[in-house]
Amino acid sequence: MNAAIVGASGYGGETLVKLLSAHPKVTLKAVTSRSKAGEPVSSVIPAMRGVLDDMLFENSDPAELAAREDIDVAFLALPHGAAAEYARHLVDAGKKVIDLSADFRISDPAIYEEFYGASHPDVDLLAKAEYVMPELSDDAWEQKELFACPGCYPTSILVPLLPLVKAGLVSKEHIVVNSYSGTSGAGKQSKEAFSYCEVNESSKAYGLPKHRHLSEIEEQLSKAAEDKVIIQFNPHLAPMNRGIATTITVPSAGATLEELYAEWEKCYSDKPFVCILPSSTRPDTKYVVGTNRVDMSAVKDDRTGNFVITSAEDNLVKGASGQAIQILNLWQGWDETTGLI
Amino acid sequence: MNAAIVGASGYGGETLVKLLSAHPKVTLKAVTSRSKAGEPVSSVIPAMRGVLDDMLFENSDPAELAAREDIDVAFLALPHGAAAEYARHLVDAGKKVIDLSADFRISDPAIYEEFYGASHPDVDLLAKAEYVMPELSDDAWEQKELFACPGCYPTSILVPLLPLVKAGLVSKEHIVVNSYSGTSGAGKQSKEAFSYCEVNESSKAYGLPKHRHLSEIEEQLSKAAEDKVIIQFNPHLAPMNRGIATTITVPSAGATLEELYAEWEKCYSDKPFVCILPSSTRPDTKYVVGTNRVDMSAVKDDRTGNFVITSAEDNLVKGASGQAIQILNLWQGWDETTGLI
Amino acid sequence: MNAAIVGASGYGGETLVKLLSAHPKVTLKAVTSRSKAGEPVSSVIPAMRGVLDDMLFENSDPAELAAREDIDVAFLALPHGAAAEYARHLVDAGKKVIDLSADFRISDPAIYEEFYGASHPDVDLLAKAEYVMPELSDDAWEQKELFACPGCYPTSILVPLLPLVKAGLVSKEHIVVNSYSGTSGAGKQSKEAFSYCEVNESSKAYGLPKHRHLSEIEEQLSKAAEDKVIIQFNPHLAPMNRGIATTITVPSAGATLEELYAEWEKCYSDKPFVCILPSSTRPDTKYVVGTNRVDMSAVKDDRTGNFVITSAEDNLVKGASGQAIQILNLWQGWDETTGLI
Amino acid sequence: MNAAIVGASGYGGETLVKLLSAHPKVTLKAVTSRSKAGEPVSSVIPAMRGVLDDMLFENSDPAELAAREDIDVAFLALPHGAAAEYARHLVDAGKKVIDLSADFRISDPAIYEEFYGASHPDVDLLAKAEYVMPELSDDAWEQKELFACPGCYPTSILVPLLPLVKAGLVSKEHIVVNSYSGTSGAGKQSKEAFSYCEVNESSKAYGLPKHRHLSEIEEQLSKAAEDKVIIQFNPHLAPMNRGIATTITVPSAGATLEELYAEWEKCYSDKPFVCILPSSTRPDTKYVVGTNRVDMSAVKDDRTGNFVITSAEDNLVKGASGQAIQILNLWQGWDETTGLI
User: Fold this and answer.
1) Does the interface predicted TM-score (ipTM) exceed 0.95?
2) What is the pLDDT of residues D96-110, one digit of tens each?
3) What is the pLDDT of residues A150-194, one digit of tens each?
4) What is the DSSP letter of C211?
5) Residue range(s) defining the domain that contains residue C278
6) Would the CB atoms of D200 and A240 count as touching at under 8 Å?
7) In terms of domains, do A12 and A119 share one?
8) Which of C183, C192, C204, C279 should be substituted to probe chain D, the one whose Cβ sees the most D Cβ atoms within 10 Å?
9) Whole-prediction pTM value?
10) Shortest CA gap D336–chain B (Å)
11) Cβ contact (<8 Å) for D273 and B341?
12) Strands (E), D41-175
């Protein structure tokens, strides 16, 4: 299977390059970047020295890429708003598209506009797209032409929480989520605020009270609940490169901790990338960085009646590029873990 | 005024040594540590080289310290359980005691036992002690003989939250607090789990669901509310040395953001160590480390009806040693900021 | 090929576990640790959750391991002094041994005793052992029964420097090497001095003037020079987890920078794990962590007549476990890069 | 004494603002920054919240500043090339100038041009300027009108090395200096290469083989030696905010370690900001950050005949702003440590 990565100069794209260049069933045919066009991949991504020395970044436009016969699938690692034009050309040309941007994550264009501050770039194409959380989506998704990868925060939240909401084990109100993300979540930055001396030895909340990822989190939870679910989501920036630690406080709807764990086991016991930890063990970003796993555990506080659920993932792997490859593997009927750990 | 620091080899004690040795109205007369007795202060705390080269750590026992005529006030930087015996001797000898341990923070011995797993070491002395949050305690505290310094997490939570609870601006239910602390909060450690390679590039929750600091947080909130207040408190360990970033999600009790800010202004406009930031600015631990300040701001989410309040402090200064000195300053009638920034 | 890892609970062993469990031509049959015996590998090495959940740490003694028919090769990730006994039993039983300790790195037992402070644990076995720097050793090594892996610092120094010494391009005097190592180089630590708060935001030299690794560095350089070579080696501890940045200052023996690069090209142009960077590019530990590469470049200072050579490697991969696997691959005649990147 | 800080928005200027606003004998009258003019000091330097809330950054030009009657001394924290014009106006107006830039550090304009790539901006003013290393300069300096502060690297190198060169205890050849600097040494940066994710977990050399600071290091050493001294200087970037760890390898000129220490004691025993550590103790940046100290120690390697000397300082304090204030204190005849620790 021949693949292209569009917009590969950011951290998400870089991680895709690393994973796909080692994937046993994929040949990387094109790597594009407007700003790095003409440069060797291994000079922009020095970790690829000795591996991709002969490949150059291209500056192919959407039409050119769509016309390429040596490309079967394209991964879009572009900013929201920019992905849609590539997606349109590629889908029209019969290519499959795995989109890591936000452009096709939300089925309601009005919600997209509310959270992203611009009208949706291609409403028609939305109908051909599917938001794919590999462990949670039902089979129909594989028939679609465009697969929208969930965002990094949403993955760390929906994997533990969505089945509980769906099963009615937890309240749909008073859900509070706090996430602590490594700085790569902000992308490659050239702003003073993201310089080493400013981020190091610093912790802070940001994006309050209405971070963009709320749009897809709430849409997915609402679908699962068959009811409107609104949550409080408080993201924070942590002085580390990678990883998201998420802590969810949610009132139990009368369920016990055992019932929560039973539901998790039901959903995930055969899922290689979801690791259910004992209630006494707390997930740690350190142990998931570099893997495609979500680790998660829960406690119940009898004083408050709340469950406190914690999860950890690598924002660049399970939260982005690894999950994109997991989608490819499932779509192709390959072992879900091919090229992933 | 002549001071002793009892148990000065940890991070809290070290910070006290630094601050008191530069305090213009205090002479440091004794610095004790069982494990470091006989060693020069500047070899245990190398930052003090050239400043305290001639002072040695002592191993004075409670009776010896209490008998010293050259000591007016003692700061106890000891583990909970160990402070009470020193406090008893010192108070009986007519010394003032500023205690940084948990031993006299909670007025109800049953709560102490519930959270600290041992019966209270000196119930009688509790009556002579006062939990002093300098910005919030009323004047009577200065008459007591023992001043209990609030914990690091409680300070970062109670400063922003307590006045709002007291004024009835926020709900007493569904309060969720997430805090993110630098690793010095765990003290000087020789466990593998706190070694550099394990903590670096790692974020995780711990102490769920019933961290010890809950005992004093809930007691203070309950007194302010004149009602039982129970909260969810989720502490996290961050890969940085110092600082606590706290995020409080609390339903508004019908109050507007303007009313919240007005209440804060009423309480704190003349308080030098509380900095009320605009709603659009998020506190950052980086900017408070080394200072005795709490920075704080709030937003209101009209979708959920919640306030999201964030604060930042230095866990070793405002969360421990700086606040202890602030208490000394106020008790003595000195300018509150003497020896502090 | 069936493999055992002896002493797998440290960082070197952990990296071996990760690499060998994904190696396409190796089956991991046993993982031992005295302190962790009986515990699941994935609880001691949480990164292996979902991968090695069913494997337990063993506490097999040397004789037991040697008697195991399902083991063809053993990797020893033990402290110096402890490896020799395992090596003896395994070699006597006809197993191949790849030893990551220092026990068989130095051919002269007197030098071993001088630097390691104890008499050599098994002088006879030394004759069956070979110090294997895969890019530099000649073919005979593959006939030996025990392969001694070079140390982390020596690898970063010898790869760039040894060919230049051998070719007579540089002086054998006034060689000064400064290395900056991530803290994992000190192993898993439970000392206060290696706790997060002490190492973070700290840089310092240590081990001056006679670090143990000097013994193997000087022996190898002296063999290459056919003359006694003594160097100044200044190791430093850097506040990061992994990676070594080495800077070598060495007077040119009349050679030009072009001649230096020509020599490097001659030695390494077909070596997949040595990356010669242009003189204007400085190696960075960031780009080699996770890989088995040494990146290196050099400048010449016409004012001093010195070459300044810099290299970077991952101390746990090319400096330890990756190199051990590279040795396995070469010994077996497999592609050198199998299971490595 | 009334002071102005010109160019106060960088890390050096910020440190000056903090130190001078707390200095008991200085009143800060003006703080300038072209890019931040009009903004409150406490919004640009949030650590100053509550301390300098009412002061605004100015955009005063050189003539305006020179005409201000309320300014006695000006600290220039400007880039090289930009400082000279301010210095000229201020000196002509009879103000004293303490210049933290490189413009007046080198007495030979040809050397300035060689290293800074531009002709010297004001050769005439050089005659009125003095390079002031407070512990090493002789008394005449206080009569000059402009005091040039040494650079950060040079301070960490010259304090330990210069007296040894002057006394003939060490060779003037084969001197190799490796320094490892925190990232604040590169100033406030908005380049991707200095973003958190790029610097964190990374170590590398840079500026080889002819870093700008060589010009002042070699000029000072040559003056002390009364002979031309050329050294190899290898600076490195470390993943930490502040601090420089310097390691000097220099052949002994027949001197013993005791003679080296005796010379240091002779020079520095009464100097409050130079701390001579025992030969067995290695300086650590952690213990000097926030102070104006240089910590240093030395070993002798009898195998090579070299001394290996290590030092540590805070690049922003002793390496810049603290040393500038130390110069002010000495010039004014105040206690050298006023406002410093």
Assistant:
1) yes
2) 999 999 999 999 999
3) 999 999 999 999 999 999 999 999 999 999 999 999 999 999 999
4) -
5) 153-314
6) yes
7) yes
8) C204
9) 0.97
10) 13
11) no
12) 73-76, 96-99, 129-131, 146-148
